[in-house]
Amino acid sequence: MAGLKPMTVLYPVMPAKDEAERAALRPIGRNRDLYQSAIHGATDIVKAADEMGIWGAGTIEHHFWSEGYEVAPSPGPVQAYWAAMTKNINIGVLGYVLATHNPIRVAEETAVINHLARGRSFVGLARGYQSRWTNVLGQHFGTKATKSPSAAIYNPATQGAGYSTATTVANDTDDDRMNREIFEDHVDLLLKAWTQESIDHNSPRWQVPFPYNTGVTDWPLARAGVTQKFGAPGEVDANGATRRVVVAPAPYTQPHPPVFLAGSGSPETISFAGKHGFIPTYFTNIQSAGPLADIYRKAAAAGGRSFGPGQNQCMVRWIEIGKTKEDALQRIKDYDLDIWKNFYAAMGRRQVENDDYLGSLVNSGLFLFGTVDEVRAELVKQWKVFPAEYITLINHYAQTPAGVVIETLDTFQRQIKPALDEVIYNANRQAAE
Length: 433
Fold this sequence. Notes:
Elements: E1 5-10, H1 19-24, H2 32-52, E2 56-59, H3 75-85, E3 90-93, E4 96-97, H4 103-116, E5 123-126, H5 131-137, H6 149-153, H7 170-195, E6 201-202, E7 207-208, H8 220-223, H9 226-230, E8 259-263, H10 267-276, E9 279-282, H11 286-302, E10 314-321, H12 325-335, H13 337-345, H14 357-362, E11 367-370, H15 372-385, E12 390-395, H16 402-432
Parallel strand pairs: 1-2, 1-12, 2-3, 4-5, 5-8, 8-9, 9-10, 10-11, 10-12
Antiparallel strand pairs: 6-7
Helix pairs in contact: 2-16, 3-4, 4-7, 10-11, 15-16
């Protein structure tokens, strides 16, 4: 394994100087001028990251954000545009909420992007936790947002560390089970579409071809013998019925682009990532990452894949670097506290005591702040516990100005990454001995 592979993932937050301005501009998520500035400023960040050698750049997928906190509804066109504007960086999304999507369309879209980028792309997947839009866009599959009860109760280290304790009630358990069932079915179909010359699929939600029992009996090119001559072997049966379909094109990257799988601590999600060789992306504190990494490596080994400590795994962090610790803390107040208070905490996903939102953020284990020396020292300490191959550096752009995001990435790349490269090198050497 080479050195650390940093990714910058942009969470598009329509900027407001305070809550009063956000309220005055309601619904700020539909503000044309702010979005126009934000979408093009994001491209400036990605181009700068490309020039400085950052491994990857991604966006997210979320919908209906009237409040302006995550205005990122259409990741495919954004990825294609960024691919055209860059030379070396890997472009992707973290991630498609697959249980709300037609997985064949996702397979096609990501394969085309992979070709446009000449292989410089990755695909991220997620299960969906925001009910306002997951339930709406996933309604035809029966998808509901999930709270992943096991994520909150699995590791006691998460308790009192910025995480709320999920209430394991029938609704949560049933919704989570259904979401996972749909998600895993869609992943199966996605992988088939990427990797097989022709596919069929028969599950409670998908028949490919349709209807599955008879096949497609009225395809004119099969009646004319064209598909039998030019299509895939077995695509049409002896009676002229279409029995398999070909999803074209195949991805440029063989067998498919790297797949990142977002997780907030659910051991089932991490085990699923290991089974498929996906890259688990831990939105957790360092205390939770170690036990989850053990689950990942065991699941991967059961599937015939061997990974060293931290290999093929990704840690998520928000970092704010200032000339002093107080300066860095002010950046958190200016750029991160609004979304933490009015989204993350308001969703009930983060523990807040006595309305101390800043304390909740600082103690979450997800944010690091201080001088470059302080941030470097803390990351080195964490990477000695868990030497992840990838780090996702999330920023709340455009609430955070583009210049600040670029400055932070440059500081990380020049002054922090070399120390983490050394930690990873030493961990690999020890594992090999």
